[in-house]
Amino acid sequence: DRLNLGVGAYRTEAGAPWVLPVVREAEARLLASGVDKEYLPIDGLAAFNDATARLLLGDASPALAGGRVATIQGLSGTGSLRLGAAFIAKFLPPGTTVYCSDPTWGNHFNIFGDAGLGTKRYRYFDPATIGLDFEGLMADLGAAPPGSVIVLHGCAHNPTGVDPSREQWGAIADLCASRGLIPFFDVAYQGFASGDLDADAWAPRFFAHEKGLELLVAQSYSKNLGLYGERVGALNFVLADPATAGRVLSQAKRIARALYSNPPAHGARIVAAVVGDPALFGQWKVEMATMAGRIKAVRTRLAAELAAAAPGRDWGFVTRQIGMLSFTGLTPPQVARMTAVHHVYMTGDGRISLAGLSEAKAPYLAAAMADVIKEA
Ligand code: IK2
What we know:
binds 4'-deoxy-4'-acetylyamino-pyridoxal-5'-phosphate, two-stranded parallel sheet, seven-stranded mixed beta sheet
């Protein structure tokens, strides 16, 4: 009955990793076409960069039409964030601080810290409601010095699964505009969170198009296309004018040249093949919706099982949260008991990956959670 809910990677209902059939098909086509193993250009595969920027900003993006976007292929989400961090460290004024949500994906602090940048936290999660501490967030960002960089999770916040509402996003965007803060979106779950590529890119599109903000966006294809080990992603800069976009791309390439010379080709070719072919693109959307749908079904089942096993508590947060991760609100001693007694493995902060759970095992997890809550 033991459960590994620590790893943030998709698993099937049977608990196995899943190579998307659309990826297998794209790879078969690539192999048949006899692609070579030559280096890519420093900024990556042109067809990939075009596809990834359009996926992010939409086909009708005024920023893309205006030539105001600089896109460089990166080493998945992590490497794209790291490239952006290096750019900030090199070109923004010394002492520029990067604000990350409290809590955030732990690697954010490594990424920005290793680039030599100072980091601070802004309030995000309210343990009392297992929801967003919106007032704390606005107060902390409102106190950030102008020119600070604000890391925002585009959708499916890791680790909490708690996202701002569209109205709240609007207020955050207005604050960034009025205070001169620079948004840096981390988009690691586009299409994987809700099953809809456009819905999951709403926030960065809104900031860029409706509010006219300059911003950075790191993208990852680890989750939505299941390309974890291929390391495919991108860093996008949305800028005020095409001349700036040209200069920024040129400087980003200089940084990439020194860090890793040029990015890996295989995963980028898969993305370009899938997005560039209407049939494969349609198939990807179906397969993405399958993953998102399974996780939603697991959430629904777990919430029902928890309500039955521990009826004294409000378990509504399980279905309110989005994406594959859920902050359970379990304390460190409760997490320790989950592992020691029930063999349920999760991160020490009480985060579980619902991708590692099946509907069949939801009753076991609910019973274990009910037990540790009772004990504490
Ligand atoms: N940014 C965020 C917010 C992420 O969640 C991830 C992926 N994290 O992996 C899941 C986990 O927490 O166990 C990334 C960036 C980086 O993804 P990539 O694998 O594309 O570098």
